[in-house]
Design goal:
This protein is mostly beta strands and 307 residues long. It has one domain: Porin, CATH 2.40.160.60. Helices cover 9% and strands 54% of the residues. It contains three helices and 14 strands. Strands 1-2-3-4-5-6-7-8-9-10-11-12-13-14 form a 14-stranded antiparallel beta barrel. A hairpin with a 2-residue loop joins β12 and β13. The longest helix has 19 residues. The termini are far apart.
Length: 307
């Protein structure tokens, strides 16, 4: 039984890491995008006022939330993996903005087999859950800061692994043509327990970037550099074009698409993303499509409310 368990865990963790992103650290859900808007802009959100999605992109962005905000996102992942995100933010006058979010990823049901490939008749499932508490505050007209605490639990069969982490971020509103700068350190923490006493490192990350609305075009551009402890530096770029008061078009590209290229005709699309945003009467709807080249595409659908 123990041998079957180790084989199953090894195979499943390989699938999960490949589907979410290359890496040698554990708890890969900590790397996954959350909202439809951010995914459409290839995750280049460190210097963008991202609303309650700032729980993932930059906790300092929470400080820009007015009153209350709620968002729900569904992700149709590769390999029939399903994921979702729900978050709520609440402004407390003269104190700041508090937020809470729950992110999950369901890898599905698997059939147990022996080391020789013989089915035993038993099934098991695998899933990750991430709970986040965050806070952001605008210190003055120039600087917004924020932080968050995260608890993550991974389950494969009857085996669990868990970890805690902190994020710290800041956003600077410069006097140069409404340009914003963003910087953050993410996933500062440690595993609490691992699979069979094997404790993975967390994907510690550093991110820096800027965003800027163009002067004579209804377009906001964003650029971001990020470095995980187990990866090269990634470059992400995104743009949001305001077509009307209700409609926005978004495009993005990330250099991490290079890890998804397999010498096929679809390699040119790896790392590219596209999306639309609709806003009316305090209701926000976002859709995004992210290409992973020959591996397939991921779609996200988000709906939120401001009240």
């Amino acid at each position: 039984m123990l041998k079957r368990t180790f084989i199953t865990i090894t195979i499943l963790l390989s699938i999960c890491s490949f589907a979410i992103g290359q890496g040698t650290t554990g708890f890969e859900l900590l790397r996954s995008e959350v909202g439809g808007r951010g995914a459409a802009m290839a995750g280049a959100m460190i210097a963008v006022e991202s609303g309650i999605d700032g729980l993932f992109y930059n906790p300092a962005a929470l400080g820009a939330i007015e009153n209350r905000r709620v968002d729900v996102t569904y992700l149709n992942h590769l390999l029939d993996i399903e994921s979702g995100f729900i978050a709520y933010g609440h402004r407390v006058e003269n104190v700041g903005v508090f937020g809470a979010g729950l992110n999950y990823m369901n890898y599905g049901v698997f059939h147990e087999a022996t080391a020789y490939g013989e089915l035993t008749g038993s099934n098991f499932h695998a899933a990750d859950f991430l709970f986040t508490l965050g806070y952001g505050r605008k210190l003055n007209e120039t600087i917004t800061v924020g932080g968050s605490f995260k608890y993550i639990n991974s389950e494969i069969w009857d085996v669990h692994a868990s970890a805690y982490a902190f994020d710290l971020g800041a956003m600077i509103y410069t006097p140069f043509d409404n340009t914003k700068l963003g910087i953050g350190v993410f996933n500062i923490g440690s595993a609490l327990n691992g699979f069979y006493d094997y404790e993975d490192e967390l994907p510690l990350a550093y991110k820096v970037g800027f965003s800027k609305p163009l002067a004579h075009l209804p377009l906001e551009i964003a650029l971001q550099l990020e470095k995980y402890r187990d990866s090269d530096i990634y470059l992400s770029a995104g743009g949001e074009f305001t077509i009307s008061e209700m409609l926005r078009l978004r495009l993005g590209w990330s250099s991490r698409g290079g890890e998804q290229q397999v010498d096929s005709d679809k390699d040119i699309f790896a790392g590219a993303s596209f999306g639309l945003g609709f806003q009316t009467s305090g209701v926000l709807v976002d859709y995004s499509l992210t290409s992973m080249g020959e591996l397939g595409t991921m779609t996200r659908f988000s709906i939120g409310g401001v009240f």
